[in-house]
Design goal:
The chain is mainly β. The chain has one helix at residues 109-114, and strands at residues 12-16, 20-25, 30-36, 41-42, 58-59, 70-73, 76-79, 92-96, 100-106, 120-128, 131-139, 146-148, 150-152, 155-157, 170-173, 179-184, 192-199, 206-208, 219-221, 228-232, 238-244, 248-252, 261-268, 287-289, 294-303. 2% of the residues lie in helices and 43% in strands. A hairpin with a 4-residue loop joins strand 3 (30-36) and strand 4.
């Protein structure tokens, strides 16, 4: 897995209202804490490197791994690690009020050496009641077409408040149909293989989180099969919900580690297939932004 050590230049921005206290790092514009004030409950993973040293990285300009750890653009091959580079860069903190913050990252000489496209990436956080809205805005300031992917990777405590075992918890979806998901190939490259599996979903939308659910890495759920995913306690009570309109999403927890969190990841893009042999413009679920264009998407985290 491609990782880079965190830089020391990081400031924290705090949003707060009567229900929640939210902390965001300027490094990566990454959520660091979502704490419920009434019960002093922490809902976001604390980035303990014992299991995973991140909490909620923003994935840009790639989601997932690339075949042979590179992509092709205008006849040239560019090496690129998993999930792009935005998560490992310092963002400017542009706006901060009690309940709203905006961060930005502009293309520069460092980014253009590995991704020769102009961009402005803005990440917004808006707090209202028990809802935290996460907003992604990508702008193309150039005369050339911008090709990119973007996604979220927030990790939520499961079990929550150290109550029970993860295998006693449930997902709840806004569908009663079983979810078909793709599996990462077992060749160590992090690419989507040909194999699929099914997550059984009951008539009431619940699905058991089993002990071995993530043994094959992330569950990649394509084709708008669901747009609301809740984590539920053993008595099937939702305690956190992620709502989105993304074409696909991932569910992940580190395989075989017994990590006390699960990621619910809205994606506009994904890793390459093992069979992919195309250019940047041809990547599945990739986004195309014309000169001067703006791409804006959002998802919402709700503490129940």
């Amino acid at each position: 897995m491609w990782e880079k050590e965190r830089e020391v230049c990081n400031m924290q921005v705090v949003l707060e209202n009567e229900a929640l206290k939210v902390t965001i790092n300027s490094f990566g514009a990454e959520l660091a804490s979502i704490r419920g004030k009434e019960t002093d409950t922490e809902y976001l993973w604390n980035a303990d490197a014992k299991f995973w040293k991140r909490s909620a990285p923003v994935l840009f300009p790639f989601v997932g791994s690339l075949k042979n750890k590179e992509y092709h653009y205008e006849g040239k091959a560019y090496p690129m690690g998993q999930h792009g580079f935005a998560r490992d860069m310092e963002f400017a903190a542009d706006v901060q009020t009690a309940t709203e913050a905006w961060f930005s990252l502009h293309s520069n000489e460092e980014t253009k050496a590995k991704y020769p496209l102009e961009f402005i990436l803005k990440i917004g956080y808006e707090l209202e009641g028990k809802d935290l809205k996460v907003i992604w805005q990508v702008e193309n300031p150039d005369t050339k077409v911008l090709y990119f992917s973007i996604g979220g990777h927030p990790a939520f405590m499961c079990p929550v408040d150290e109550k029970g075992k993860q295998s006693e918890y449930y997902f709840k979806f806004d569908t009663d149909k079983d979810l078909t998901y793709g599996l990462i190939a077992d060749d160590g490259q992090g690419l989507l293989g040909q194999e699929e599996d099914v997550l059984p979903v009951a008539e009431d939308g619940y699905a058991q989180i089993t002990k071995h659910l993530f043994d094959r890495d992330a569950l990649i759920v394509e084709n708008h099969q669901a747009s609301v995913v809740s984590l539920c306690t053993p008595d099937k009570k939702p305690y956190l919900t992620v709502s989105f309109d993304a074409p696909l999403f991932g569910l992940w927890s580190p395989a075989g580690k017994g990590a006390p969190f699960i990621c619910i990841e809205p994606w506009y893009g994904r890793c390459d297939r093992t069979t992919f042999d195309g250019s940047l413009e041809q990547r599945e679920y990739g986004n195309t932004l014309q000169a001067g264009g703006v791409f804006r998407r959002e998802y919402t985290i709700t503490v129940e």
